[in-house]
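pls design
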């Protein structure tokens, strides 16, 4: 493609209301006016909470709770109508948008009816649920495109899915009302994305594209999994050979911890791809764990920035060579289980570890962390929801092995070159938890960080004390006034 492009991706909170969408439109308009910047291609999430709502609707449709289903659906419509109202469009544009929203609601209703009609096979329910979940993004592209046009940008909503995926391997979701995700196919996605957007870019029209959703090579609508819009932004970016992907969200960038849990979390101005990948793997929701896969090998940088403070510089995630990050961050991944496999006779045999992980893979689970091993045992963390199926397979196929499972755990990960450069980091981390009387169930360490497994109930306290002792001490507020009053009262 002739024109160089950049991806601007806006998350659910960024498009959470009419007012926020107007901010998004101004950011797009501003990017266009900065002539030296590459041409913007926009990827958007559903309005915050809408995908959850669609999945509730899908579950209610399956279980035949039609009245509640109807109530949820009208609340969803109301959210979008309200947002449209607050876009402050010209009369004619508003009529146009209302009409487009109506057409989209009707199409959504027809997908809901497909679910109500009782798809018998579980796989069929999974695919029809994904089709319902996809409508959140298809609705938000309409709102963002209308707002962008009203801000003077020549923009059009893209209604078709750009990303092409494989047919999902494991089509059965964990339970009703959850959504399956599939993997993008790079070459098919490149061809399809360029077909959809290149003619627009050539005419300087900004495409407003739905994140999260895709189409399988077998022709079904599918998603990239929960929180997958970040992943779709980079898959689309790679397909268009973009120069940069900006992920606009509701925080200033990637911080040293989740700011909802740690009040004095610091902005990390730079991160390497591998640091960012590990942070998101161990729970930093700000980036979907697969976000960097399509672009890291192309050395395309990702910038995470705040929609509500667009002038703040954010975090740049880039190649190791270009980045001396010295980053240090703490994250928590919740709802894990520790599986230990022991066999005093023969575990040292070379093929045994491979067999254990092959069985976990058959249950559709990847080990979250491998904690310890010897010639006679192997222990690893998995998502709690996958533990039962892994245990059943291990017990069935490896009858003579002793298998145990401890649930209700969390992994606290201290990640970044800022830690690995300091030989005292491990000792300080363990001491921080010991001081708070938080037992460490097991641990793992590598050149990129330290993983400490604790009870899930202790994990937020663990995160705060690790952050306090390893990254940013909390300076207690000194209330002189109160102390003086107490002294006077004595
Ligand atoms: P979006 O809807 O824009 O995709 P998300 O809710 O998926 O936003 O991700 C942003 C949220 O990620 C933040 O509001 C924050 O609470 C959470 N978060 C968790 N860990 C971190 C971290 N280390 N740095 C920044 N944000 C984090
Ligand atoms: N709307 C989708 C979700 O809530 C994707 C995303 O927001 O990233 O999972
Ligand atoms: Mg997100």
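designed seq:
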């Amino acid at each position: 493609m002739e024109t160089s492009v950049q991806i601007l991706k806006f998350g659910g909170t960024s498009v959470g209301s009419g007012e926020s969408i107007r901010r998004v439109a101004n950011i797009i308009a501003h990017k266009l006016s900065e002539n030296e910047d590459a041409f913007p291609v926009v990827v958007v999430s559903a309005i915050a909470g809408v995908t959850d709502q669609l999945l509730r609707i899908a579950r209610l449709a399956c279980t035949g709770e039609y009245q509640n289903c109807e109530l949820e659906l009208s609340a969803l419509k109301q959210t979008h109508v309200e947002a449209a109202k607050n876009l402050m469009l010209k009369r004619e544009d508003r009529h146009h948008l209302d009409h487009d929203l109506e057409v989209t609601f009707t199409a959504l209703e027809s997908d809901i009816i497909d679910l109500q009609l009782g798809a018998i096979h579980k796989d069929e329910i999974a695919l029809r649920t994904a089709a319902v979940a996809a409508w959140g993004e298809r609705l938000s592209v309409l709102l963002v495109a209308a707002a962008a046009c009203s801000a003077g940008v020549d923009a059009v909503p893209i209604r078709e899915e750009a990303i092409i995926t494989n047919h999902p391997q494991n089509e059965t979701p964990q339970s009703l009302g959850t959504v399956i995700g599939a993997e993008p196919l790079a070459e098919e996605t490149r061809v399809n994305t360029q077909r959809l957007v290149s003619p627009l870019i050539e005419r300087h029209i900004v495409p407003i594209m739905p994140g999260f959703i895709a189409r399988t090579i077998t022709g079904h609508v599918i998603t990239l999994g929960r929180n997958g819009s970040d992943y779709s932004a980079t898959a689309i970016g790679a397909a268009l050979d973009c120069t940069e992907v900006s992920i606009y969200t509701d925080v200033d960038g990637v911080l040293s911890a989740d700011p909802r849990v740690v009040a004095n979390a610091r902005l990390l101005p730079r991160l390497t791809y591998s640091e960012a990948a590990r942070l998101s793997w161990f729970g930093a929701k700000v980036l979907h764990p697969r976000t960097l896969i399509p672009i890291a090998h192309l050395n395309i940088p990702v910038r995470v920035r705040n929609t509500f403070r667009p002038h703040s510089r954010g975090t740049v995630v880039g190649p190791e060579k270009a980045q001396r990050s010295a980053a240090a961050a703490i994250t928590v991944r919740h709802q894990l289980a520790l599986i230990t496999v022991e066999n005093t006779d023969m575990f040292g045999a070379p093929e045994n570890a491979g067999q254990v992980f092959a069985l976990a893979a058959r249950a559709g689970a990847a080990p979250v962390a491998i904690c310890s091993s010897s010639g006679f045992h192997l222990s690893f963390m998995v998502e709690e929801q996958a533990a039962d199926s892994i245990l059943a397979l291990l017990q069935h196929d490896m009858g003579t092995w002793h298998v145990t499972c401890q649930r209700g755990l969390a992994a606290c990960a201290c990640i970044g070159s800022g830690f690995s450069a300091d030989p005292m980091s491990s000792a300080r981390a363990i001491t921080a938890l010991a001081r708070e009387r938080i037992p460490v169930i097991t641990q793992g360490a590598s050149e990129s960080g330290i993983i400490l497994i604790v009870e899930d109930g202790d994990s937020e306290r663990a995160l705060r004390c690790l952050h306090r002792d390893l990254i940013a001490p909390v300076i207690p507020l000194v209330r002189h006034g109160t102390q003086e009053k107490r002294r006077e009262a004595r």
